[in-house]
Amino acid sequence: MVLSTGISAGWRGRAVLGALALSTAVALLPSSASASARPASDRAGHCANQSHLRVPGAAHQRSDCLNELTTAGTVASGHTDPADWAGLTPKDLTVPEGVPGIQIDGYFPDSSTTNTNHGWNHDSQFVIRLPDRWNGGLVVAGTPGNREQYANDRAIADWVLARGYAYAATDKGNTGLAFHQDGSRPGDAVVEWNNRVTQLTRAARAVVAQRYHRPPTRTLATGMSNGGYLVRWQLENHPELYDGGVDWEGTLWDAKGPNLFTFLPPTLRHYPAYAAGGPDAEAARSAMHEAGFPAGSEFLWPFHHQVYWDLTQRIYREEFDPSYDGATEAGTPYCAPRTPGCDADYDYAARPAEVHKAVQRVALTGRIGKPLITLHGTLDVLLPITKDSDVYARMIREAGRGHLHRYYRIEDGTHTDSLADAFPDRLRPLLPCHRSSFTALESWLTTGHRPPASHTVARPEDATPASLLTSCRLEG
Q: What is the spatial distance between Cα 181 and Cα 130, in angstroms, rounded to a whole number?
């Protein structure tokens, strides 16, 4: 697969908005009698209390006692779906193992049916993992893009489980490229994302107390891309449920802008002229820079043009502004400017007030109520840093919450870590910086030691791809 110029069909279906959208994953049919599950006679200490665990509010649940809760075991046992996390992590990422415990899969009541995992054909699916050796904490995650509940398993769940945390994740209540069909009015699908994370957090805290006979001493929210947006929203709107969070390149929704609809349409207009070369190419390049895509990121533009920009604009515009293209469903792919209803001509500022009100329903304010660490790559060309996390950090300061925030701009990081495999001399994965941020948050909460001041984390001059995969020093 040559990521700079093209992608395989399998990747394409799973790659939008970190990846922002995902084709429906292959249905999982795991059996509670899988090879990794121990017989009931072995469960007195291992997986204790399994039969008594009940997820509050769940319409259906199934629990399994597993020898391995990380992907070192759950891939073979059918308790994860590799399609959910395809393309999100570097290929050489080490997978921890040796984490036995209980996994609960299930779903909350919902009327939509896009998630086919387990053959349930039911949305609002969740996974809760309860390690035998518990450190007292709980990590809650919403998925990136429009992926399903296992999307964070490699990037986040494996590592926090190995550290002793209980872990819970939700599919956010709707999945796939047609997520915008869920709900009855513009913005409903994204509103549901936030509600489902809140619902799962409350339920998971209760299940943790059932399993370990005490509530979690610390509840942390974390996630990437759309999952990072969910962290921001939860700490603004439900800080009572969390002790802190780590926001990995979260999506910025602001009714005034910037947002996806202010920087993606100019990109759709100008990139073709840049790619074609000729007398208009330099002006088109300048217009791309003005839209937010930094100088030096040009090598990433062909991939993002093919995979992200057009599809992202169309399906999210359909969610908030379905009337723009009339009866057409989510626009016309790669339409030429001045074609009726073309998303390349979309002018968010000129759209009716109800469109801005739909975005306002899910907008961020910066009024976080618990400590938050944000990290974002300087070469992100899906959610350009100057139009996203730079702005959100300023919103937090203007809201008077700067003392609760640390912001690390990661030099040469981009939106999807697997691209670092294709461009090892130009990019660095963000995953090690997420882990450094997570441990910095732990120290902040347990010892009061504040993390390093917000700054740009430079790429070490002597860095190698191997060292960048295992280390990220936040100190300036």
A: 34
Is the confidence at residue 189, as pLDDT, over 90? yes
* R_g of the chain computed on alpha carbons: 21
Residues 6+ apart with CB under 8 A from 33: none
Q: Does pLDDT of 32 surpass 80? A: no
For the stretch 97-111, pLDDT in tens is: 999 999 999 999 999
Non-local CB neighbours of 455 within 8 Å, separated by 6+ positions: 408, 409, 476
Is there a contact between 25 and 390 (Cβ–Cβ < 8 Å)?
A: no
Residue 63 falls in which region: left (phi positive, over 0), alpha (psi -120 to 50) or beta:
beta
Q: Tokens in use for 462?
A: 């002597």
pTM, full prediction? 0.91
Amino acid type, 427: L
The residue to which tokens 């040559």 are assigned: 2
Report the candidate in 429, 384, 432, 377 with the shortest Cα–Cα distance to residue 408. 377
Q: Tokens in use for 61?
A: 């649940």
Reported residue count of the chain is 476
Q: Give the bridge partners for 138, in sequence order.
A: 166, 219
